[in-house]
Design a protein that fits this description.
Elements (H helix, E strand, L loop, with lengths): L24 H13 L4 H8 L1 H4 L55 E6 L21 H4 L7 E8 L11 E8 L4 H4 L12 H10 L1 E10 L2 E4 L7 E3 L4 E5 L18 E3 L4 E6 L5 E5 L15 H4 L20 H4 L24 E4 L9 E3 L11 E2 L7 E7 L3 E3 L1 E9 L13 E8 L4 E6 L5 H10 L6 H6 L1 H8 L4 E2 L1 E6 L6 E5 L23 E7 L5 E9 L6 E2 L6 E2 L9 E6 L5 E5 L3 H6 L6 E5 L6 E6 L5 E7 L5 E7 L25 E7 L8
Parallel strand pairs: 7-12
Antiparallel strand pairs: 1-32, 2-3, 3-4, 4-5, 4-6, 7-8, 9-10, 10-11, 11-12, 13-14, 14-16, 15-19, 16-17, 17-18, 18-23, 20-21, 21-22, 22-23, 24-25, 26-27, 27-28, 28-29, 30-31, 31-32
The structure holds MU-OXO-diiron and calcium ion (3 copies).
Length: 679
Amino acid sequence: MTDHTVYEIDNSGIEPLSNHSNNTTFAEVMTQRRQFLKGSLSTAVAAFMGASLVGCGGDDDKKPAASPTPPSSSSESSSSSSAASSVAPLLGFTAIAANRNDAITVPTGYSATSFVPWGTPLTGTMPAYKADATNTGADQEQQVGAHHDGVHFFPMDAKTTGTNSSEGLLVMNHEYIDDKLFHKNGPTLGATRPADEVRKEIAAHGVSVIHIRKTGSNWEVVNGSPFNRRITGATPMDIRGPASGSAMLATKYSPNGTSTRGTLNNCGMGATPWNTYLTAEENWAGYFVNKDATQAREHKRYGVGTKNGRYFWELADSAADEYVRFDASTKGATAMDDYRNEPNTFGYMVEIDPFDPEARPQKRTALGRFGHEGVIFAPAVEGKPVVCYSGDDSQNEYIYKFISADNYYKATAGGYLLNTGVLYVAKFNADGTGEWLPLDITNSAFTAKAATAGVTFANQADVLINTRLAADIMGATKMDRPEWGAVHPTTGEVYFTLTNNSSRTAANIDAANPRANNATGHIIRWNEDAGKNSFKWDIFLLGGDVGTVTGTGDKAVTLTADNHFASPDGLWMDPRGVLWIQTDMSGSQQGTGPYGNNQMLAADPVTKQVKRFFVGPIDAEVTGVTGTPDMKTLFVNIQHPGDRSTPTSFTSSWPEGGGARPRSATVIVTKNDGGLIGS
Ligand code: FEO
Ligand code: CA
Ligand code: CA
Ligand code: CA
């Protein structure tokens, strides 16, 4: 989460807007794509996608008719007993100093190049980016979105050997927009908003699928590839899992509560063991407004607006249904006559198959509804359930774990595994043990707690739509803003960043969140107790200035000028076991603290050696990192450079420089001698 700017206009007295027919933009885009697929590249695409193209109805959700027999027990997969090895040779670079440069800094012997900034033409008519921010909504729908965040590289052969390090699909999130920089003169505000500004803002959200290829030492976008795709805040998508079809999801658009339009505030992500992409919906609640005298609990507990949506999309002057839906106030006779339930169709992990350009995204309700930062999967084990973890990034919210009901088999694995299972929430005990508490209406421990609290749930859909309330009831541990997770590729040890928490007081510190007014954050980790709903945890690292100590005795580690950091956020354990830590300090923390600009550090999880590898430009967040399978190319995302700018005065001009409008972009990092990243 960052300091999202909220428009400050008085919208009192705005009359309810009437409904019109759906915006046809995306139907048109899909028609164009189908025509393209019939063209010259269709044979190659079919070869890549195999049978999935043949039956592409967008439903990758079918459980196979028969699964192989489990090897032995069907108990949960969990951490093995194997110990992690030090990755010291992969931290051979010379740590760089903190700095306040409007540039990317990497260690001596490394190079960094910006790539696919906001506005890069990607699909359709390939509209060129306009430096004065005068592109239209239709342009933006065919260009790379804004505010790059979570990112994953799927090698082109991901579904077979997964070793291709020179061609793949780079899939990334676009979290939000910077209102002051997004339009030439900033947003147009008044009793209504120009519909095309709204269309453009919605189109800059979501996900980009970008087919990229390495030629010589340069990476380039494969222009014209049918894999290139924009998924936005307006793309039709299905709602799957226990909440699908719930009356609480019924809207004028989807009276049976099985679909919705768009994904919003896409922050972190996760790659599934079957090579699909999950995008997280984080601070989605603020995009909506509900002016009813009393908000339903599934709105109030998440912070749905009471006066206006974050960007006033509900006031688009076309009054098109696509925009009216952001007003969740009760207007019609029933939920099927208005959008009172529209916010209930957001707050999920959304599955996208980048290798099937026509597949509709699937919202996976079994993973819960909250401010999903991202998701991270435990290593998949043949014949065992799928396990994944997700944090809810808000002050004093929780960390969750999902265990699938069905077992994983590589040959048949798919999104159906995320439709049925149990969602748990974490309780961290003071003695270093922890428990996973079930949020399951068929579990007597859950129903007993609900009864004690005097809270009723109609069914499991109600539980999941009110995940935060269900977790409250179970007595989960309130955390210092859980952001990304990472899992060790061989041991299964789990790491989570807790970015900071200004509301933590001395009176409510606990062992897992041990500092009052936690301004610099920390990283917690745990190992699962095999076959049980419990774990053992410790604090891996405390953020802070030079001299900050984590642990005691011979296990104590002290931060130095090579690695002091604050507000850890992005986290990735690469396939070799190097832990990459990214920071999201506020503008003032970067400007006045000792840490310089936001940055990325590399850590050895065994020795806790930590070295600063990367420093971002002015007023930017470093968020999202992935690599090629050979770990010789790293892709790092830079979000909101110059976010303290005004429409006429930019605090950064990265990546172009020379006073240009700052733009979020990806950074490609390589070692000049062609060696392994980190060495
Ligand atoms: Fe979008 Fe919690 O960062
Ligand atoms: Ca953050
Ligand atoms: Ca952010
Ligand atoms: Ca984040």
